[in-house]
Amino acid sequence: MIIVDTSVLAFLFFKDKRLTPAVKRALRANPHLLVPPLWRSEFRSVLLKYLRGRKIDQATASDLFEQARRRFEPFEAEPQTARVLRLAKDFRLSSYDAEFAALGDEHRALLLTNDGRSLADKLPAERVLRLSSFTY
Q: Which of 60, 86, 99, 131 could crosslink 114 through cysteines, CB 3.0-4.6 Å?
């Protein structure tokens, strides 16, 4: 089982020549996954970035959200608040990042992320699965 960061999920909907195939390889290798419900808000932020950049229109954004919701809703799990707060404090994470880390901690699962600037670098290496390990 893996916990999948929203930055990774987004590459399934916004194609990148190098990272989209890496996400697909990672999910094939690790088909059992979980995401906190927070992924929805974070994905909406990604959609807003593309809307503001005029790369997609409102209808496309809404359609992409529904596609993502249908695909990942079955894998949602709510992390324990006490664990989220403890990990945020211990590793100096945002509460948002700590939700993903807490799910990993609770389920003894690695966190698949492409976020090397903060989340992946703040957690112990044995808790993180970097998307870059699936790129060729």
A: 131
